[in-house]
Amino acid sequence: MHALHPSLKSQPKWFWIADIIRCKQESELPEKKYDADCVRRRAPSFEIVDGQLYKRSFGCPLLCCLLPDEAKIVSMEAHRVTCAAHHGANTLARKLIIKGFYWHTMVRDCIDEVRKCPTCQAFAKKDA
Ligand SMILES: [Zn+2]
Hints:
Blueprint: H1 15-26, H2 33-42, E1 46-49, E2 52-57, E3 60-65, H3 68-82, H4 89-98, E4 101-102, H5 106-116, H6 118-127
Parallel strand pairs: 3-4
Antiparallel strand pairs: 1-2, 2-3
The structure holds zinc ion.
Zinc ion binds near residues 79, 86, 114, 119 and 120.
């Protein structure tokens, strides 16, 4: 049986990862009915492989669930370094899924990444 990732305890915003792991490993659900219903509904879409939580996706391999700090680095690097084409937020999110990553706020975070990018903002001002 795999242990809960220690960094999850210090990141309450990402409780859903901890709750899904607890549900899958120990069949425990959160006490609040709404949270329990969310976890029960979402849990079948996830798998734990070697202690890492993965999300199943349609037609793609398992998507690696990232913690907030990892997600921030991956989205910034994909947007500004690896792809370096400064695609829009939706394209960036799609590329991250194709690369095998997942976190539940990825579209919102990609929008933030594009808004914070000086190059994208320079082009946005030019087009206006
Ligand atoms: Zn950019």
